[in-house]
Amino acid sequence: MKRIFLIALFLMCIVGPVSAYGLYLNCPEEVQAGLPLKCTVDSDFPPGTTFNLVLYQSGYTATQIRKQPITIQSSQKTINIVTDTTGLPGGQYKVEMQYTGSDEERLRSDSRTMMLVTIIDRSNEIEITSPVTQDLDEALRIEGNIKDGGNKGVELEVHGPEGRIFGPQWIQTKTEVRNNAGVFTQKVSVTVGGEYTVDFSDSDGYVGTKTFTVVTPTTQTTAIPTTITVAKTTRTTLTTAPTPWPTTEQSPLSPLTVMGSLAVAGLLMVLMTRRAQ
Description:
five-stranded mixed beta sheet, mainly beta, Immunoglobulin-like, single chain
């Protein structure tokens, strides 16, 4: 019995230190939608051990949003993990570390592999009143108001195809008497067309991002009518006149005169014949 106890104790000494590892996930309790969710992972797992950091949207059922692999390095230093929250609706989310090995290692009891994070969406607190599509000739007009902003000011940062072109810079806001909104207006010069994103922040932190599109005016080509002069060619048409039918030449004497003369000549011949007899 004593021998069996010693063998069991020996096995515990061998297996215990090898299989019991610590894994510690740390994330902020809340983050503004559109800002990166920054978490850290500390672990004494062997280098090369890989986990998946999985982000779920909590609800009646957990819906997986995205997953990214995390591998323990030889230095076993703190691993910084950044997860994009752009486009995610406000609400509660779950961040979880999942082991990817064939048989999951046992964790120490003080390990933390899951945290709940609340994403706060304030983007609907911004109302843009200037056109979201603008011509390059008119630069970029950023006009609108921020909910309950009053005259506290608002911070703008503008990014475009060529990188950051404005801010971060605080600009003045004027109180809208009706609802205490903070009305702002700012014109930013741009030199190229494309998409421009404007990040808004106030005294409570990040509010949201709005996107503008700057287009290059289309050059309209005016069609100039071309006059084509057609040379007039005079054509001479030869017309062959039909040959006229032969015309019977009429006697200058009338038909009665001729007949009378013939009758008289015949009578004279008869008289002369009788005398001769």
